[in-house]
């Protein structure tokens, strides 16, 4: 068992704004958080789990990041911070900065203006699941709930892979994985460990700040024998709301009160259960739960969870009411509809698309293009088709309609702000357009957060005011889908940015060290409307069948016909007269007759399968995957996610 509590410094006692400085050397360490496999992990200053960042509202935060990894570039994103006036400190590489190359330094410097529960993580090449992720807590001297609890605790939930991301990504986006089956985690973790124990005192109220820092798995969380009261989601204070179970997608946070019982005779399990509907396959040895305990008395046993749910019924975050009671924003100036689609491209790999575009990084970070393009900065074309850019005017009200054409859940995250979640359909409701919902059905005081789950084949409507000049990504927070392209770029009031923003020299130095150009359009051309040479995704699949596909289909048909012929020949042949008892295994005599009949049935069943359309499709898929490398076995082929 592990008591790995993240103690908080409780900076809220200090009222005056201060400067909080962190010197982070990002380097490799080894870690084995699930006790099953020791692996290289990205640490900070030689340690993992990473330090919690803490500040007070109003503080200036400086992070001096040095990349000591040797073999990978990196960057830091401070998830959920609006970065008002400091979009260049937001962290995604090739968007607001160049990736920090090995041996380079980069200074993040920003003022925190929001209270709440946040986290920081790498925003470069799907890297954070290798360890570069940790809480970031911003204390609020004016917290409206500060008299309601005695103590604060940080509790993270996450998923864990034994293999490292570069290898997993090579497999995930390859023709060896044409269905786009996401690698399934090896374990779930609480506070980056397992068997976590949290010592508690009776009749005391704790504020839990909970964060899902995982790569992929959403998690159901409950505390046996205790209810919780939600007070904050993603940095937004809410009207207190009772819950017995919550769901946290990757990147979501939730603060809640938990009041302990008055007796100390028993300890209680805390269970986090990974959402297996996201997994294309369920490995037999996978424990998708992780258990910790509220420990009232360390001499008492730590009981196994008593309740394990078949059907989960978590708290519905759409019913939350923000503490500030902000009403629904008015009619939008602009409506953007994004359809979530998974499809294959000409390299045989599976990609994720908003409408018809899968994101590809530009050659010049989009922010630097915005700053250098003069008047043309308001023309979306200069950011390149494959960054999927939208340019907003200052203070426009934007409505985002997201339709899930895919059968998976996707947690969508918007950088630079929280949004009003004004409508979310049930699963399989189809597109928003087809649902015939009007704005009269929108929530009058909508829940706000920065990461929200879109249900399978459902739809979602978000609104926000474009009041934060900057370059902000909107993307799915499943790290696999970030890499397969489920990203759009919002460029907000670029002409204002040009007036206000100066990029520090050490940011430009990082680009020079990495050999990344800092002027020009997405293609690094100084003629801003000439996109020749821009980075592009693989071409679409050729129409119809490829030569290989045709050959595979012909062979499938031949083997199918042969199969049917063999069965017909077998069926018409004379049946030898045998006593059933010679076939039936010892001890199964009671079902003797049934046994004989079933045996024959199975024989002809496989013949039918061989000639069915399904079998032909599988043969074709098999032919493709045999050409790929199978070096990564953790994920296997996976099944098709389209039912
Ligand atoms: Cu996704």
Automatic annotation (TrEMBL):
Known PROSITE patterns for this protein?
A: MULTICOPPER_OXIDASE1, MULTICOPPER_OXIDASE2
Q: Where is the Plastocyanin-like domain?
A: 26-142, 152-298, 359-494
Gene Ontology CC annotation, any one: high-affinity iron permease complex
By its UniProt entry, which InterPro entries does this protein fall under? Cu-oxidase-like_N, Cu-oxidase_2nd, Cu-oxidase_C, Cu-oxidase_fam, Cu_oxidase_CS, Cu_oxidase_Cu_BS, Cupredoxin, CuRO_2_Fet3-like
Compositionally biased residues, Gly residues? 592-606
Q: Which GO terms describe its biological process?
A: cellular response to iron ion starvation; reductive iron assimilation
For this UniProt record, the keywords arranged alphabetically read as follows: Cell membrane, Copper, Glycoprotein, Ion transport, Iron, Iron transport, Membrane, Metal-binding, Oxidoreductase, Repeat, Signal, Transmembrane, Transmembrane helix, Transport
The reply on keyword Ribosomal protein is no
Q: Where is this region: Disordered?
A: 586-643
**Pfam families to which the protein is assigned, alphabetical:** Cu-oxidase, Cu-oxidase_2, Cu-oxidase_3
Q: Where in the cell is it found?
A: Cell membrane
Q: How does it sit in the membrane?
A: Single-pass type I membrane protein
Task: Return the Polar residues bias intervals.
Answer: 613-627
Q: Listed GO molecular functions?
A: copper ion binding; ferroxidase activity
Q: Which SUPFAM superfamilies match?
A: Cupredoxins
Q: Does the keyword Signal apply?
A: yes
Give the stretches traversing the membrane: 550-572
Q: Which N-terminal stretch is annotated as signal sequence? A: 1-17
Q: Which Gene3D superfamilies does the record match to this protein? A: Cupredoxins - blue copper proteins (2.60.40.420)
Q: Which family does it belong to?
A: Belongs to the multicopper oxidase family.
Q: What is the recorded name of this protein?
A: Cupredoxin
